[in-house]
Amino acid sequence: MAAVKNARILVVDDESDVLFAIKMLLKTEVKQVVTEKNPENLLPLLDKERFDAIFLDMNFKSALNTGNEGIFWLKKILAKDPEATVVLITAYGDVELAVRSLKEGAFDFIVKPWHNDKLIETLHNALEARQQKAKGGKAAAAPAKAGAGAILGESEAIKDILYKIEKIAPTEANVLILGENGTGKELVAQALHQKSFRAGKPFVSVDIAALTDSLFESELFGYKKGAFTDAKEDRTGRFEAANGGTLFLDEIGNISPAMQAKLLTVLQNRQVIPLGSNTPVPVDIRLISATNEPIYDLAARNQFRKDLIYRINTVEITLPPLRERHGDVELLARHFAAHYAAKNHKPVPTFAEATLRKLNQHSWPGNIRELQHAVERAIIMAEGDVLQPQDFSFSKMEMPAAQDATAVAMPAVSLPLHEIERETIRRVIEKNKGNISRSAKELGLTRTALYRRLNKHDI
């Protein structure tokens, strides 16, 4: 605590309200809080004074105006003082960029509007890490907790997701989860709820794809007795059932334009009108949506309302397919093997090396769900306690070539694998005229994963 009380903190942000709020919050926590609106004054200030931690905004109203200002100034700070402890301040929409900043040397980031206790906790962690580093110990970085929800994985791709869950969960932001079938979108939604301030309240899940237009309103908004022929009694809709908690709308990309309009009205007004009633019912929910549909392509074709997208994706999380989660197949396979062995009253099996090679070489078009089913079949059908390659067979539905998962043709010439990957990435970026978001989407990668490959291949 002494290290915190004696700390000197610098806050750099071009919004006076942000500077004032942090200064008031931290003035009783630390020895001194220095504020600065103009990032151009940052380096001269660091020449004259020493700070134990720096809170740095990611976007300034400057000539740069690219969304990368925070990383630009972060690099400048670390070039001057490689031991500087920097915490980025970011808005919801820049979470992807903030995760990238961790790779560039930032200690952590906070999402605004923040919760005061979370900001103070982040400051304490940063100062503790700096103190440990000064003593020659290992700095305590702020990685995601590996057990978020029931999400398993040790790959860089899944660590990015876990970190986002930690940061986004305590906010009230609506979240849109994108990803292929079987990537674990509902698990992420549950993890966001469990780590939010609504954790003690209901988590209500709705499979939108299973609702016809005639059922949509009655299921989501409820109805009064006599509203239609089979309405024998009042029924509470899913919005009301989730009041105070989280509503998860799965496969939201499948709803019709007419139902999109009704959903938008509810989200704008924060109230529902049950069928057969004229009385609005206020609802307080945090909305999490998910889809495997190309929702932005649907919007471009006027099949999905753009104003509804703005409502549902204050923050967006794109889940990586299993083929991009390098190293996680074996971990997940062992987890499912233990689960299904216990369920089927069998000893927990081991995996032959040849079996692990076969699993790692498969493209897993059905993602985690396909792996789960494959392991369950193997547990049931295996003759011994060691799972062999022949215990795993994939149907034709599960056998698309890996290249089908990408939207570009691979070079026809025979090249080493890393050269093929480099050439494919280069072609896609050229095709999209340097647009990283579109290129990542076409390659089936997150932006963070694409940035890693750009660095890896020096593109």
UniProtKB/TrEMBL annotation:
InterPro entries: AAA+_ATPase (IPR003593), AAA_lid_NorR (IPR058031), CheY-like_superfamily (IPR011006), Homeodomain-like_sf (IPR009057), HTH_Fis (IPR002197), P-loop_NTPase (IPR027417), Sig_transdc_resp-reg_receiver (IPR001789), Sigma_54_int (IPR002078)
Gene3D superfamilies from the UniProt entry: 1.10.8.60, 3.40.50.2300, Homeodomain-like, P-loop containing nucleotide triphosphate hydrolases
Keywords noted in UniProt: ATP-binding, DNA-binding, Nucleotide-binding, Phosphoprotein, Transcription, Transcription regulation
Name of the featured protein: Sigma-54 dependent transcriptional regulator
Modified residues (4-aspartylphosphate): 57
Occurrences of domain Response regulatory (ranges): 8-127
Entries under Pfam families matching the protein: AAA_lid_14, HTH_8, Response_reg, Sigma54_activat
Protein source organism: Pontibacter saemangeumensis
Stretches assigned to the Sigma-54 factor interaction domain: 151-380
Domain of life: Bacteria
